[in-house]
Structures are given as C-alpha cells and as structure tokens.
Amino acid sequence: MGNIWLSRAETSADMPAIRDINLAAFPTPVEADLVDSLRADSTAWIEGLSLIAADETGRPVGHALLTRCHIDTTPALCLAPCAVRPEQQRTGAGTAAIRAALDAARSLGERHVVVLGHPAYYPRFGFTPATDHGIGLTIDVPDDALMALSLDAGHPLPSGTVHYAAAFGI
Length: 170
Hints:
Blueprint: E1 6-9, H1 15-25, H2 30-39, E2 50-54, E3 60-71, E4 74-84, H3 93-107, E5 112-116, E6 128-129, E7 135-136, E8 146-150, E9 160-163
Parallel strand pairs: 4-5, 7-9
Antiparallel strand pairs: 1-2, 2-3, 3-4, 3-9, 5-8, 6-8
C-alpha cells in the first residue's frame, strides 16, 4: 500500500508539530533544539526551505530543513535535520519532504547542498561523497557520511571546507 504525502513549506502553525516530529525521531532533544536555533538565526534561516510531509489528514509526519552554510566562501545549503515520526518511517514521508526541500531550493536559485548523513540513504537524491569534489569539514567524520549535491548543472560544486551556521557548533 503506497502512501500519498502532501509536501509543503512550514507555516507558523506547524512549528509545534515539527518540534514534536524531531523529538519523536531522535533519542535526545538536540535536533529539535537545533531547528529552533536555526529558525532564530537570520543568517542561516531561509524562508520556504523548511518543508513538511503531511498525511492525508494534513498532520505533519516528516520534516526536512535546508539552511545557509558555505563551502569556503561560496553560499550553499545544509540539509539537516531530517526527521519522520517513528510510526511513519520507511513510508516515503522523509523522501517526500527532502524532494520538496530540494525542489524549493532550486526554485530559489540555490546551487549547492551538503548533508552529513547515512551514506545508503542520501544518494537516491543525487548526493555523492563530498570528498570526490574536494569538500571537507573541520571535524573528523567518515568519508562516505559527508555528501554534496549540485542543484544546477551549470554550476559544479566548489571545493573547500563546509562552514555551518553557528547553531551546529561545528
């Protein structure tokens, strides 16, 4: 049985549900607090790039967030956190939210996205190992966990070090 997800940008009314999704999906409140901190950071937050996937009743069950980062001095986006209510995981809700977020970023003219995540999950969206593009971090992470994506074939990924918003603490 396939699920149909309605993906859309968050509204202020969705903020408690997004917090609840992140609290349910992760073992600590770190990711939920991160979303709140990023939302309050005018240098990181980009209106329209916090996307939810809602079920047929309109209840948000998945969330994907893109915020400003840089690869050296080149503006890019960071995909994090991504979360789905545990009872809805592996149903396509996360995929729907991420695809909607990437589409929204393209429509805003954004060019590059990085993600630090599961190497078996994110390639389905076109992410490839960041090290293949000369992209790295200031902290040690497994080579295959840091991935990057160009949203615009006319603008290849730049090389350099990823600089996250202050809320990430990296």
